[in-house]
Specification:
Elements: E1 6-15, E2 18-28, E3 33-37, H1 44-51, E4 59-64, E5 67-68, H2 73-77, E6 80-83, H3 95-105, H4 110-123, H5 139-151, E7 157-161, H6 169-183, E8 187-192, H7 195-201, E9 204-209, E10 212-218, H8 219-225, E11 227-235, H9 241-245, E12 250-255, E13 260-265, H10 272-282, E14 286-293, H11 296-312
Parallel strand pairs: 3-8, 3-9, 6-7, 7-8
Antiparallel strand pairs: 1-2, 1-4, 4-5, 9-10, 11-13, 11-14, 12-13
Amino acid sequence: MTSPLLSAKSLSRFYGPQLAVKQLDFEIYKGEVLGFLGPNGAGKSTSMKMLSGNLAPNEGEITINGYDLLSQPKQAKAHIGYLPEQPPLYKDLSVTEFLSFCARINNIPSLNRKSAVDTAIERCGLGNVRKRLIHYLSRGYQQRVGIAQAIIHTPAVVILDEPTSGLDPIQIREIRQLIKDIAQEHSVILSTHILPEVQMLCDRVKIINQGSLVFNDTTDALQQQMQSSHILLTLGSPPDIATLEQLPGVTSIDAISNTHFKIHYQPDHNPTQIILESTVSHGWQLTALTPGQHSLEDVFMDIIQQETDQTKE
């Protein structure tokens, strides 16, 4: 099995007596987009700062492309690109001037700097603003410049902390497409609290709450948790609820109206086929039958709530 490009084991971080991150394990493999989710204040930004080498953990170890981040920081950081929540931009410089500076501080050889800057500008869609001062760019373009500085030295791992925060819908769509493009050549860790972003961009998901990891699986596994055990049913000539409750697998029924019902069932006993057969044989006049589904927000809140309840116990 291939080794992870970034691996963190048992990371913990305190702010005084306050525990911000507790025993966090983290890994990402080549070509992956890893979504790092959590409510505000859950410890996401603290974790990102530790993974990028901008904040030392109180406990634990981090390895990046074979280099220990704590004992070999210079070598390890050469393989990381990092965009914090507030992009680190020198706004009195033009886009080209700023990225040239970033190329120098990332130790790109002088002969290769112009090519590196041009490539970053092209990949991030900055060609039409390359000579403009960053101060006069829109928030979306400033975010693009922030991403360009993170990838200019072609790092193995790119860490993006809330990259679409504060952008308008058009800018969000553009930045998401840019992240997809970047992921073709880099591994990406995407910290966000925007759930649709995870569905659109990520291969795996980690969810953190109160500093602890509460979910670690593929996006497909998260999608499976969205499958609900209920059916929305509309009948033109419905029977009484007691008759519906006697159908095999049905656990309870919510009467939304005289003709519209929410039918809950045991996960392994979906009554859809029986309902279809019964409506035909008894003349219930089926007009609509819709499988229920939890939203990603519902699943997220269930995971968070389960962890909170266990903590209280």
